[in-house]
Specification:
By secondary structure, the protein is an alpha/beta fold. It is built from 13 helices and 15 strands. The chain has helices at 9-13, 18-28, 65-72, 81-95, 110-122, 137-143, 162-170, 196-209, 232-235, 264-275, 283-326, 346-355, 386-409; strands at residues 51-54, 60-63, 103-108, 128-132, 149-153, 155-156, 159-160, 179-182, 212-216, 241-246, 258-263, 331-333, 336-338, 361-362, 376-378. The protein has a 7-stranded mixed beta sheet, with helices on both faces. β9 (212-216), α9 (232-235) and β10 form a beta-alpha-beta unit.
Amino acid sequence: MDYGRFFSQVALRREPSAVSTLRDKAADEETPVILLSWGLPNPSLFPIQDATVTLKNGEKLIIGKELMVKALQYSSTKGFPPLVQQLQQLTEDLHQPPRMCERGVLVTIGSINALSMAGNMLLNPGDPIIVQEPLFGEIISALLPYGPKLIPAATDDEGIVPSLLRETLARCGDCPAKVMYVNPTGNNPTGVSMSEARLREIYDIACEYNIIILEDDPYYFINFVEDLPTSFLKLDTEGRVLRFDSFSKTVSAGIRLGYVTGPQPLIDIMTLDIMSSAGYASTLAQVVVSELLNKWGHQGYLNHVYSLREEYRKKRDVMQKAAEKHLAGIYFYHVLLQVLGLEDTQRLINEAASRVGVVAMPGCYFVVRREEPCPYIRVTYSVASPEEVDRAFYLLAEIIREEKLQSKKK
């Protein structure tokens, strides 16, 4: 596949850093070399010697002196080599992508960082990009600096609607979209997951219109179906999928690690991006995750994420019951409330809800045209206790009733 037409002017101007290229080569060397090439800090002067991390079940991760030196020293732009190998194997085991040997894996500073780099690589000012709507507001913020034209793709209870996607693409006319953003599993904020049949329809349309798919899947493991879902990556016979995974939901948000898998030419450009900006994701964080995966193994990691899924399922059910108890007549789906009879929820949430001690998000944060009225509220169940959820929904019900009364008086 020829990727030349997809690259932005910025991407085409990128060149590798000579220093970082040498450093990456040295990091990948299996035999010791004498380094006279750049100013590595002397590891004997590092103030941290070793570390022990205690897991929730009481087991220990031991980061000894030799490994700690690697964790504290400059490392490879692509990622801590043992972790990169683990992620490649995990991806092969979970997704069985066609022609994996033609794909690369890049460790990133979370998935938003990776999506921002993808936007930098693929979008010139004015370029159209199709985005699944509603979508997480941070995605919009990550893409807007590159000046694209965000074109919302209509969705139903299975995700992007293929027939409406075709109509949207047809309207692009002489400036066809070359990129599409999709959050296929547990969409934020609707919670919708695409079926395999729907994925295949969308993938076929992407092939027909020659579109790169940005598959952002942070909730791949945290969904409420029995089996792990099919991914666009698994279907990608043509090399047009960039897949973004994250450890934020499965290990820790603060550890700031994600990874992107995709065709090697695209991964190469993204590597040049991170090489000239952040350098690479925190090696210490990568070492901790790598050692965690070593201890757990593939099945142990899956057991961990399955246990998370069950805990979040219980919390979801608590919120569902609270919604049924306090918000009768208000449409509730997963984490999305539609306030029937109210045109917009911004003032309700930003002023009234804050006043009574409830923090939620107005629905306009999750659509492309944020200036237009939106009757939705996004809520989450991950942290609040059952008692807090019940209290919050009672208060929301009260202020919604007050807001409706005020609206009728106007």
